[in-house]
Records
---
Amino acid sequence: MEYKIPYKTENRTDAPEWGRFALHGEIGRRIAFYNERGVMSAHAREEVFAEAQSYFRDQQDDALRVGYWRGEFWGKLMLSAARVCRMTGNEEFRDFLRRETYALLDCQRPDGYLGTYRDSRNMIRCSLKAGMEDVGWACNYNWNVWCRKYTLWGLLEAADLLDDRHILDCADRMAEQLLDDLEALSVRLKDTGVMSGMPSCSILKPMLILYRLTGKGRYLDFARSAADEWEREDGECPNLLKKALDAVSPIRWFDRDRSPAAREVFSGGEGTDGDEWIAKAYEMMSCFDGICELYRVTGEEKYLRAAERYWEGLDRYERNVMGSVSYCERFWEAASHPDGATEICDVIHWMRLSWELYRITGRARYMDAFESAFVNAFFAGMYDTGDFCAFFIRSHGRPYDAVMQCKSRYQNCCLNNLPRGYVNGAQAAVTAGADGIRINLPLPLEAEIDSPAGRTKITVGEGYFTSGTVLVSAEREADAGEGRILFRIPSWSRSTAVTDEEGNLITGESGTFLALPLLPGRHTFTVRFDMTPRILDYEGPVEDLPGTDYHVQRWLGTKGTQSEVERDIMLTRPMSTVRRGPLILARSKRIGSSGEDMFSGETVWGRGMTASAEDVREEEGFLCRCRIVFRDPAGETIAYDMCDYASAGNFSSDDPRTFTLFV
Ligand SMILES: [Zn+2]
């Protein structure tokens, strides 16, 4: 579909065209399996999509004073499905998505409104007292604008996929009507919904896509005014741009400068979550997705600077032990906790933010972070049944299964987002820009990609998770010009070398790119990564949190459910984790580890151990299996059979002691 407004600033590097890349190997197998079972199956179409659409007919999200979020599900399903459709090029599924979108559009009101709230102007959160009366706890939800954000974005994705002007026109009318509602109510976007308006304000991203597609200045003005509200001199919450530039830990953003409107949330009450609720990871990162887009649309450096500083803050304070950010769906200085649990939506949005910043800047650190989240936390949460996922993944115990939300049969925020995550991963493996072709994730794959020097076919072989030796071949037309190929040297690889076909050995520096000339014809390179296992001793103190602490309760899961784990497995003293190559390793009953061994508390922590890997092998259903031998300075050894975290517990488990990352 034609974009009327070009970006003011070009991406430094970008994904191949749709349909021109495919991952193979174990990750490719998991993606293809999920596409078939979880996205394109008859069940996914006839039950899951149908249920999500029914909410637009029933409009029950504002049946109580507490407003729900059933309206997000359809848009997320469409975003996921449209991207899977583009990636696979499945024409029959494309036809289904057209029918599905048109059926949804039947629910659009003559004035343009399309939503799951009967009253389109019901967008201000209810009082905690009303919530208590309605649902039995002090709940002030209102997700009206957030739901419309996802519907709008899903429609834009469908319009673009199907190159369908009618769908775009309907999305346009829908957005106009939302702006009319806001004007009629004289309400600022940030004062709608919950969490200081962050869920509502994340509509920035689809509004800017709509601006680029239609050229209507009203949408850009709206996006700018929403962003201006995050740069207030009076410090009113959530002031995201100003706070980001301060590079302060996000949990501390809301400790002061609270607006009267926000105080209502903070005032809490029995069963409320108090201050912490405000640093909700998924919603906050979604806002910065919009900020990245605002940078591309306007070219104004402050937006990029804020997004980069924000990312740095998360990298410093919120990186958790599973390769993602956040602690139990909030920013809670996860880096200061030895154990962790992270929502899959958070993993996906940390990947998304890292991916957008990588496309814009080409900086290696963003791809380092993306990789760690993708090959560890993300796949740990994507179940091996190919149609389900975790809500939270934990560092040990078992995953917290996705629970169906809003009394639905099939809908969960993480589940509906999930395919977007792996499509992002597949897109990110090889990219290209003015500086050449980048091999970002050297996973088994094939891709055809255009760079200024012409089209190049890239093939990458196995080995990234096992031997650490990977063959990369690049094939270019005979009349192509001289280009460059850039190999990402991951920050974890302490010594990395690329050998070209003449046998020249070129070493690269960790955390950078190694650029080599790429001539026409077919060329093969061998990349060797340092696969020595790395022991990470947890450095901070281990806080003994009271059992009433929200995060203890959240980590343990709901009593009496499949997801519950026992308090006595929470860490009471520091332990270590092991990484090999890009993978975080784990012990698991799946590979024969015993519960007594895994949860005995015995640790290599603080013993000055070194580690080596023996018997490293590939096996279907795993990214890697190996035996890790730990050796202390006196020569005494301990050995554990280990596998990648992404395969140690990627299933619903009836055993609360299934796996652990800790040694
Ligand atoms: Zn979620």
---
Amino acid sequence: MEAQQIKRTTAKSRGFYVKMKLLQQQNGKHGRPHEKSCFFRYYKWLLWLSLTLYFFSPYLLTTTTTTTTNDDDSKNDNKNNINPTFLSKTRVVSSSKSTFASRALIESTASDSRLQQPLHDQEGVLSLSKDLKIYVYELPPEYNADWLNNERCSNHLFASEVAIHRALLTSDVRTFDPYEADFFFVPVYVSCNFSTVNGFPAIGHARSLLSSAVQLISSDYPFWNRSLGSDHVFVASHDFGACFHTMENVAIADGIPGFLKRSIILQTFGVQGKHPCQDVENVLIPPYVSPESVRTTLERAPANGRRDIFAFFRGKMEVHPKNVSGRFYSKRVRTAIWRKYGGDRKFYLQRHRFAGYQSEIVRSVFCLCPLGWAPWSPRLVESVVLGCVPVIIADDIRLPFPEAVRWPEISLTVAERDVGKLGMILEHVAATNLTAIQKNLMDPFVRRALLFNNQIEQGDATWQVLSALAIKLNRSYIRSRDSTQ
Ligand SMILES: *[C@@H]1O[C@H](CO)[C@@H](O)[C@H](O)[C@H]1NC(C)=O
Ligand SMILES: *[C@@H]1O[C@H](CO)[C@@H](O)[C@H](O)[C@H]1NC(C)=O
Ligand SMILES: *[C@@H]1O[C@H](CO)[C@@H](O)[C@H](O)[C@H]1NC(C)=O
Ligand SMILES: *[C@@H]1O[C@H](CO)[C@@H](O)[C@H](O)[C@H]1NC(C)=O
Ligand SMILES: *[C@@H]1O[C@H](CO)[C@@H](O)[C@H](O)[C@H]1NC(C)=O
């Protein structure tokens, strides 16, 4: 009966593929060894071939794999439409490649002491990531690809929902066999409905879009029902995570939609302690900053160049913040900064938007990162990657990837109530440990961890997410899976 339901998948060829897999599974343990012995002779040869290709031409490898597909719908850029007769061969190629690649990852990681250190405490992380397999759902374009018609969709503040999806599509942890997947990634872009009035992302439709995606995958595939979504991964990259609202009180009142409560949410929102909008299995991720924009800025002015601005902030600073249902923007912290330091020569404070603001960050010693409506801001990432010491003014903020990025060593934290003493605090640091902080900030490992690349790079933000997911994997489950193979 499951096969019947599977047949209803939207893409015909995928439906067929999944059905094939299902039949294979139903044949149980007899299917696999037979398949293995059949292709064992080819295996060595294919392993050799794929290693060669892997070394000498990643491009060729992709092309080779693609040419074995019998694919009349070539814009579906993947191997799901593989002609069934080539299925096993192709799977051997791709799995040997992924095994090799993760070994390579482990070896190079072990030989790089800088990388080894942050992961040292988490015994087994690396061997887990070797086994990590993620199935990426293919959803109709209205859930994701259509939104890319607006170029901003893939490079604005919330674009990690796009970047993580892209990185997974070409990554070694991706599996095309949902039955061997540890996690299921549901690629829905909810942040790209930009308001025609102010250009901000309107996320009012997020809940219904996600709910309809869950409806679709839970009726077309058996995996959602199997786990009630607990091995399914979503990105919620805006202000208050899976609560999908920019105002905290409304976000809390709305709460996390029931259908997401058992899933894993990759979210930028994080605070210490309990909060209704992080009361879900989650991985804290950095806000999206385009690696290209950073590269361009650093080509014009290197991070180790002259810094003639002592303290920098550009952004919304209301002189008289409005009382919005009992709350004030930035809890009036930005107002206090503006009032106290607006006329201070050492503070370069700007209230208007300026597209070239990264060139100002790279000229600054301290970059203020006060809360907005939510505690986090893109300044956290931009400061670090451009070598400006982030001054975090957001009580109780929880910061991304604390194992990889030792925030206390590369940033300053100033309590919201101490914002009036900011000048004194910064002067004191400048006279004492500024050089030490700046030195820590130059660590390339730290900067790499905060940027999402279109293709996963070792140690980058998506890599950190995968590492966090690997830790979440139930180890005994992994072990039992391995022992039955
Ligand atoms: C985009 O947001 C507007 C409100 O700002 C809403 O009316 C519209 O339905 C949304 N579009 C989609 C496709 O959800
Ligand atoms: C999953 O459960 C829902 C609700 O119980 C049901 O409508 C749907 O058909 C189920 N999906 C599968 C693939 O069995
Ligand atoms: C803010 O407005 C609310 C009503 O929306 C009111 O109860 C509260 O006293 C106001 N707070 C301040 C500090 O003005
Ligand atoms: C630098 O000094 C400040 C103020 O004394 C202190 O809060 C901070 O932890 C120090 N940072 C480092 C990395 O030493
Ligand atoms: C881990 O997996 C085992 C075997 O599948 C299961 O019995 C156990 O309850 C799981 N533990 C957790 C914390 O999910």
